[in-house]
Design a protein that fits this description.
mainly beta; four-stranded antiparallel sheet; four-stranded mixed sheet; 5% helix; 92 residues
Length: 92
């Protein structure tokens, strides 16, 4: 099965353990020399109506993905295990 990144980007990520909706895929992490996808990136939830940025992102390892459907991706992991702090972005 082949899929373009733009098709993967439109899919919602859901944990199969508790049914929690994590959000939509925004990016993928690729190992450059091998060209293999090692993880998908889902932005964390917004803080205070989106005015103060977002919380930690989710970096979900590729081996935790159980099913890629037409509109959702089912993952078998706990959200707490996949949280990665967002990089600080300055004004300059």
């Amino acid at each position: 099965m082949s899929m373009k990144f733009t098709q993967l980007q439109c899919k919602e990520v859901i944990c199969i353990g508790d049914g929690q909706r994590l959000g939509y895929i925004s990016d993928v992490l690729v190992e450059v020399p091998e060209g293999q996808i090692c993880a998908i990136v889902v932005p964390g939830p917004c803080k205070f109506f989106g005015l103060f940025g977002r919380q930690c992102d989710y970096h979900i390892p590729w081996n935790c993905i159980r099913k890629v459907g037409p509109d959702i991706v089912l993952v078998d992991t706990r959200p707490e295990d996949c949280r990665v702090p967002r990089p600080k972005q300055g004004l300059l």
